[in-house]
Design a protein that fits this description.
Elements lengths: L5 E5 L3 H12 L3 E6 L15 H4 L1 E4 L2 E6 L5 H6 L3 E5 L6 H4 L3 E4 L16 E5 L4 E2 L5 E3 L10 E2 L2 E2 L18 E3 L4 E5 L6 E2 L4 E6 L5 E5 L4 E6 L5 E2 L4 E6 L13 H19 L1
Parallel strand pairs: 1-2, 1-6, 2-5, 4-5, 6-7, 7-9
Antiparallel strand pairs: 3-4, 8-11, 9-10, 12-19, 13-15, 13-18, 14-17, 15-16, 17-19
Helix pairs in contact: 1-5
Length: 271
């Protein structure tokens, strides 16, 4: 296997974090590129929180925000993962990654091209394998989750969340109006249906309450102070009340996808 191979991952949300954690656990060097204002709601398991906090830790993996690519080796020497604010991927040519993984999960291609690395991988819909990237990994829950696609695309985005504990769209909460998001409850709190968990301060100065549709554990919640628009995802309720630890653990879905990425990376580096 190539020594000191570099895997560049665009995105540091919860699904991306599962892949980053798996690659790091396998002893690979990983560089994460993020936006200046990440919008993850499962913040306890999203390495992009390092952008705001300077550093964060998920299941033993420490991520550290860096300001320049030249600072990355110092972080790698600490057995940590560097996170660089570079949403456009401007550093890719200089970094010369062996593998690039687009894990932004934007449901569309935000600028990843096949010439960015010897192997390019995209997670989820919005990419065509063999055109935009070399390989696509399926991200939709179900029988095809984690499947490696070498020709064609992933299942198109349905806009309907996967079912957990018998609930799908009911467990995910979206903003109903424009404004600044302000939390009322915290990730890990037990909530009941109809409970106010946050509010949106509208441009007119009014307060618009955000309520739950089902009871359970507040597994995901947008960071306070984030500007939102109608339809913006702001929270996630897990109906499985007995599984509080899930708020702080990488999900089964994320780990399944991560296994497929690691398989592709290992095959590339061994060859």
């Amino acid at each position: 296997m190539k020594q000191n191979a570099l895997i560049l991952v665009r995105g540091g949300g919860d699904l991306a974090t599962g892949t980053i954690h798996r690659l790091w656990s396998a002893g690979l060097r990983v560089l994460v590129l993020e936006t200046a204002h990440p919008a993850a709601i499962r913040r306890q398991v999203s390495l992009c929180e390092a952008v705001y906090e300077g550093e964060t830790t998920v299941e033993g993996l420490r991520a550290v925000r860096i300001d320049t690519l030249e600072q990355a080796p110092t972080v790698w020497a600490q057995n940590a993962v560097p996170v660089l604010i570079d949403p456009a991927g401007s550093c890719v040519a200089q970094a010369k990654p062996d593998v690039l993984v687009d894990a932004i999960l934007a449901k569309k291609n935000l600028g990843t091209t096949r010439d960015m690395a010897p192997l390019t991988i995209a997670l989820g819909p919005g990419f065509t394998a063999g055109q935009d990237v070399d390989v696509v990994v399926e991200t939709k829950r179900g029988h095809r989750l984690g499947r490696i696609i070498r020709e064609g695309a992933a299942i198109p985005n349905t806009g309907i969340p996967g079912v957990i504990g018998g609930y799908g769209k009911e467990r995910v909460i979206h903003a109903q109006t424009e404004g600044i998001f302000q939390d009322v409850r915290k990730i890990g709190d037990l909530v009941e249906a109809g409970e106010i968990i946050a509010q949106i301060r509208t441009p007119e100065g009014k307060s618009f309450p955000i309520t739950t549709q089902i009871g359970g554990i507040l597994r995901g919640l947008l960071r306070s102070g984030y500007p939102v628009t109608p339809g913006f995802k702001v929270a996630d309720v897990d109906p499985r009340r007995e599984e509080l630890s899930n708020c702080f653990l990488i999900s089964d879905k994320s780990r399944c996808i991560a296994g497929s990425v690691l398989e592709l990376v290992c095959a590339q580096l061994w060859n």
